[in-house]
Amino acid sequence: MGMSASQGRFLLLTAQKSNNEYQAQSITFERLMLASNVERWTAEYNNATQNETLLYGQANTNNFNYNARLRYDDIVRSAEDGGMSMSLISATSNKIVVPKLPDPIPEGKTKDDYYVCPDVNDTDFLEKNLREGNFLFVDKDSENIAKTAKEDWNKFAYNDSPIASFITNTYDKTDDAEAQSLYDERTAKFQKADKMLECQLQKLETEHKALETELESVQKVIKTNVEGSFKTFG
Q: What is the C-alpha to C-alpha distance for residues 124 and 54, in angstroms, rounded to an integer?
C-alpha cells in the first residue's frame, strides 16, 4: 500500500472509529434514560400499592368497602342519622370549615367565623387536608359549634383516639391490580428495548476492536513507508 493510499485509509478508519464511539455513547445514554424510567415506574407502583385511604366506620373488619370513603357529610351529619355530629375547623384560622355559609347564620356568629371551602365536599381534598393537619375535628355539631366559644372547643386530629370509632385508616387495594399490570407491561417493554440496545452496543464494540486493529496495521505501514523514505534520501 503506497503512502497516499495508507494515509487515506488511516483518515477513513479514524472517521469510522469516531462515528462508532459516538453511536456507542448515544446507546449508553439511551440505556441510562430507560433505567431512569424504571426508577420512576417503580416509585409510581410503590405509591399505588402502598397508598392509604380514610373510610367511614368499618373498624375491626377485613372486608372493607372502599366506596365508603370519609365524606364531609359523614362528619357533620347528626348521630341520629348515622353521622359523627362533629364539625371541622381550619387549623390555621380557627374558623369553622363549611362548603357554603349557613343560612341563616346562627345567632352570635358572623360570616367571618366561617371558612367557606366548596372543595371540602371532595373526598381527596378532604383526606389530604386531614392528613396534613390543616383540618381538625371539633366535638360539636354545626349548629352548636357556632354558639360555643372557640376556647371551649375540643380539637382532634383524624388519627386521635376519640376519632377511631368513626374512621378507619387502611391500605387502598382498589388500584393494586391495575398498578401491577401497568408495572409488568412497562417492565417487559423495558427489558425488550434494553436487550436490543445491548445487542447493538456489543456489535459496535466488536466493530470498534476491528477498527482499532486495522488502524494499528495501517499505522505500521505508514511508519514503514516513512522510515523507507528517510533511508532513500539519507
A: 10
- The reported pLDDT for the residue numbered 2 is 58
Q: Give burial (CB, 10 Å; 0-12/13-18/19+) of 84.
A: buried
* Terminal alpha carbon distance of the chain: 22
Strand bridging mode 52-56 / 87-90: unpaired
Nearest to 179 by CA among 62, 68, 37, 42: 42
Cα 92 from Cα 228, distance rounded (Å): 91
Q: Are strands 96-98 and 114-116 parallel, antiparallel or unpaired?
A: parallel
DSSP 94-128: -PEEESS--SSPPTT--GGGEEE-GGGGSHHHHHH
| Alpha helix ranges (H) inside the chain | 3-50, 72-76, 123-131, 142-145, 176-233
What does the CA dihedral 141, 143, 147, 153 come to, rounded to 10 degrees? Answer: 20
Residue 147 has a pLDDT of 76
Q: Give the angle 112-118-122 at the CA atoms, nearest 5°.
A: 140
With vertex at residue 131, the alpha carbon angle to CA 125 and CA 133, rounded to the nearest 5 degrees, is 100
Residue found by looking up cell 362533629 in the block = 86
**Alpha-carbon span 27 to 17, nearest angstrom:** 15
Q: Which of 25, 34, 5 is nearest to 195 (CA)?
A: 34
Q: Look up residue 194 and give its amino acid.
A: D
Over residues 62-84, mean pLDDT: 90
Query: How do residues 140-172 score in pLDDT, each as one tens digit?
Result: 776 777 778 888 888 999 999 989 889 999 988
